[in-house]
Amino acid sequence: MMKNFFCFFLICITFLTFISCGTPQKEIIVKVVAKDFLFEVASTVPSGWNRFQFTNSGHAEHFFILNLLPDSINFLRYRNEASKPFEMVYDSIKAGAAKEETGVLLGTMLPAWYFTELKQMGGSGIVGAGQTAQVTLNLKPGIYVMECYIKEKGVFHTAFGMIRPITVTSEVSKTKEPKANYEMTLTNFKYEIKGELHVGVNTIAVHFNEHPQNAFGNDVHLVELTDSTNLDEVIEWLDWMNIEGLEPPASATFLGGTQEMPAGYTSYFTVTFNRGDFAWVAETAGSKGMVHTFTIK
Ligand SMILES: [Cu+2]
Fold it and tell me: Which CA distances in Å does 99 have to 31, 209, 231, 239?
């Protein structure tokens, strides 16, 4: 009886060893669901490469950006000192203040650490209702703030709850750096492009070569162009300082992209293309000329 038990025990150990050694470790996909108006996402993710699957199940456009907090700043301080000034400045624009004046005002209201220590570490470009996008980011451990500042009747989504902390742990993810078939290099004024896009799944690498001083970084949003799309209107819509800016519904369908990162970083995103016309557009495209139209044949 004892011998049979010992044999059974040995078989179990062998089987478990085979399972743990013989099965390759799977890459984890971090699911982020945007609803009107919250993010459903795990409160912790590993460090290293993370593949985020971003689904917009709301009625409005949404995105997410991950801001890495300085060690001395907690989520509440970020909310009060870095997020609220944007809401107050936008309220003054709604009350009739000129954009130029409010830009200067915002600079005086934001704390010094916002410009010198906070790091915008990427995220998904804007995604239309019902769309899913995928972005892969390399994150170091720390406390991040995930937020979306599209508007709802003149109020940023952050004010409704689309802002939350996420901890990136010291445990390293098994996800590998993606291989891209198309590369974009972002300077402060243009997109440099290498590679070909095709029908089906494409992996796009975005290399951040420059970051504007004391300002938002460079980013990429993918827009589908139809006969009724007016690209100038889309560019106007992307400017949060415009009254109609970032106020749903957008006049075109947004299909993802990537949010800004510091110079020297690379973000990857995946797009499944059908035939058609599209554009890469930056959130501040109007002042920089960062627009690139293309056709998938
Ligand atoms: Cu949103």
Answer: 37, 28, 22, 11
Q: Is residue 277's pLDDT more than 80?
A: yes
Distance of alpha carbon 138 from the chain centroid = 12
Q: Are 229 and 130 in contact (CB under 8 A)?
A: no
Domain CATH for 135: 2.60.40.420
Domain count, the chain: 1
- For the stretch 42-98, pLDDT in tens is 999 999 999 999 999 999 999 999 999 999 999 999 999 999 999 999 999 999 988
The whole-angstrom separation of Cα 102 and Cα 108 is: 10
Distance 118 CA to ligand 1 centre (A): 21
Among 276, 255, 269, which Cα is nearest to 128's? 255
Domain range enclosing 187 = 29-296
Measured in angstroms, how far is the CA atom of residue 34 from the centroid of ligand 1? 7
Question: pLDDT per residue over 185-212, tens digit each?
Answer: 998 888 999 999 999 999 999 999 988 8
Distance 132 CA to ligand 1 centre (A): 14
3-state secondary structure of 187: coil
Residue 15 domain-assigned?
A: no
